[in-house]
Specification:
By secondary structure, this protein is of the alpha/beta class. The protein has a domain at 98-123 and 232-410: Rossmann fold. The protein contains 17 helices and 13 strands. α6 runs parallel beside α7 (185-193) and α14 crosses α15 (367-382).
């Protein structure tokens, strides 16, 4: 079975299902300013059996048939069914590996720990999953005569990299607003290299978000942040892909870092479709991990989600989730409630040490993954996560995007953090005897040999 034109999707108000918009409309919120979601014609999708869907998705994975070899576009009917294949902008994103963290799991008391390495993708983060969908829809709209002069986003790094790369491939102008001095050099250079118009503003992410929303409203620039629910359609495939990689078995826990919170709702949305269409029959529990310096969702969770108060996010090593007023809060809360969710936080020291400890076992974690790992360790200590549970941590970006953070940790130059696992380079003269004596002493000290 291949894609048939009968499948449909549309924008729908989260609060008022009667309000609908076509995916080719330039609209980001409903009539009352609430969030939209992409809704699929589930009755039509149900006409295909669960076994047929599983077989189709497995057959497409890693294939060279355009565009189905992508982890996102291999599920095109569930993502963006009406876009023409010639307008798909894909770098064969997704299909990232599940890393069985056997040694790290053993050291922290887990028998079945996995990391979903979403950073092993073209621009180095899970943002590629959503951006391929959004930019493809924009290319489709422009091909149909839509007047979209450019696409734009506010970003703390990864979103801007994904937007710039996909827009460049599609020959669509891209505009990026970044908080000046608050992202890594590796993150800044990506949109610069891909030819985006980059504005470094004297504000934080929330300030950049205010600017991009105003530009979208007043100047017709297409908004590419996660409040545009097209992004969620691509990002939801991470949950589907995790289950597929376990031969369609559902793990017990999925732990994901949260900033603007689109990723949390996206994860649940993909799992929802698996359940609704009968491919699986049980739910995992979802954990959202936040940095203590940017934890508005955690604070709301502590109050039973009865009230939500935006905060001024303080600087954090996990810079991509330094967000005090997340636009997808409402969607994230809904997802967490439906998936028996937990919200946990991690201090700067906890996230840095979790990164370094896991790196010692062969991983290479970004600080945001460190937030998730630190949260996981707290849940293990409390007994929420049991030793025999299958746990998947979503690693959102590649560690190479944060080398400054890692170098500073190992050279013990991060203020307020007394590194527990430092491993600076040992500088010696080029003298055999000196090198030999030091080498043997280090082997004995480190490994007891």
């Amino acid at each position: 079975m291949e894609e048939k034109p009968r499948y449909r999707a549309w924008f729908e108000s989260l609060r008022n299902p009667a309000e609908r918009h076509g995916l080719d409309e330039v609209v980001y919120t409903d009539a009352d300013g609430g969030l939209l979601q992409v809704v699929h014609d589930m009755d039509e999708l149900r006409k295909t059996s669960a076994e047929e869907w599983r077989e189709l998705f497995d057959r497409r994975a890693h294939s060279s048939q355009w565009p189905y070899g992508s982890g996102v576009w291999g599920k095109k009917e569930w993502v963006l069914p009406e876009v023409s294949p010639e307008n798909v902008v894909s770098m064969y994103e997704g299909n990232t590996n599940l890393f069985w963290a056997e040694r790290y799991g053993r050291e922290i008391g887990l028998e079945d720990l996995w990391l979903k390495l979403c950073g092993n993708t073209h621009t180095g983060s899970f943002k590629d999953l959503g951006m391929t969908v959004l930019v493809s829809q924009v290319k489709e709209m422009r091909a149909r005569g839509g007047q979209i002069p450019a696409v734009a986003c506010a970003s703390t790094g990864d979103t801007s990299a994904a937007l710039a790369a996909y827009a460049a491939a599609a020959e669509i102008p891209a505009i990026v607003f970044l908080p000046r001095g608050k992202i890594s050099t590796a993150q800044l250079i990506q949109p610069v290299a891909n030819g985006a118009m980059v504005f470094a503003l004297d504000t934080d992410f929330d300030g950049c978000m205010n600017i991009v929303k105003e530009v979208a409203e007043k100047d017709g620039i297409y908004l590419a942040n996660s409040m545009n629910s097209l992004r969620i359609e691509g990002q939801k495939t991470v949950g589907i892909e995790i289950v597929q990689q376990f031969d369609w078995e559902v793990p017990d826990w999925i732990i994901i870092p949260g900033g603007n919170l689109g990723n949390v709702s996206a994860l649940a949305k993909g799992l929802d479709m698996l359940l609704d269409l009968g491919l699986v029959d049980r739910k995992p529990r979802i954990v959202c991990a936040q940095a203590q310096h940017a934890n508005p969702l955690y604070r709301a969770y502590q109050r039973g989600f009865e009230t939500f108060e935006p905060i001024h996010a303080r600087p954090t090593l996990a810079s991509a989730i330094q967000i005090g007023n997340p636009v997808s809060y409402e969607k994230a809360v809904d997802a967490l409630k439906r998936y028996d969710g937990i919200v946990e936080e991690a201090s700067e020291s906890e996230l840095a040490e979790a990164c370094a400890e896991a790196d010692r076992t062969g991983l290479f974690n970004c600080p945001h993954t460190g937030v998730a790992l630190a949260a996981m360790k707290k849940l293990i200590a409390r007994g929420d996560i049991r030793s025999q549970d299958r746990v998947v941590v979503v690693s959102t970006a590649h560690g190479l995007k944060f080398v400054d953070f890692k170098v500073a940790y190992h050279e013990m130059r991060i203020e307020g953090i007394d590194s527990s696992f430092p491993n600076p380079a040992i500088e010696l003269p080029a003298d055999y005897q000196t090198v030999r004596d030091t080498m043997l002493r280090e082997i004995e000290t480190r490994f007891g040999a």
